[in-house]
Each structure stands twice: as structure tokens, then as C-alpha cells.
Write a structure and sequence with these properties.
With 87 residues, the chain is mostly helical. Helices cover 33% and strands 0% of the residues. The chain is globular.
Amino acid sequence: LVTHDEDDHLWNKYDTRESPIDEANRAYDFLTNFIMEREEEEMAVVCHSAWLFSVCNAVIDCGGDDSLESWFATGEIRSCRVSFYQQ
């Protein structure tokens, strides 16, 4: 998390954007090292639509569900259940 007066190392408005693979890796890390470790059974994740698109198309298996794999509109809310399986 970024606090007041702290540089955000993921934001670089003068250079290049985060690559799709880096974005997918960051999303995977968020799911496996943060969400999966939480005790709550219900929670909300609020973020940019491009990041949600990456999560639903490159990180988790949505089973071809168009309602999850399509682009998220501005301010759109979608509900889904995420299950983690150890392999």
C-alpha cells in the first residue's frame, strides 16, 4: 500500500506502462499472497477495469463465462466466487 508522501513504484507517468505479463504476475501475486490468506469469506476488490480484465483473462479460469471475461465498464460492479485449489 502507498501512504501519503510515498512514491508509488508501480506508477511511472513519464516512461512505459506495465507490460501485460507484469500486470498478470502482479494480479496473481495479489490473489495468492493477499486474498488467499485472508480470513474473510466475502470481500470487495475495487480497481481499474484493465486490471480486472487481466485477472479474469490471464490469471483465473472463468470457464469461458463472457460475463466475467468481457471488458468492465467504468464503475461497473460484478460479483463472482473465487476458489483456490492446492496442486
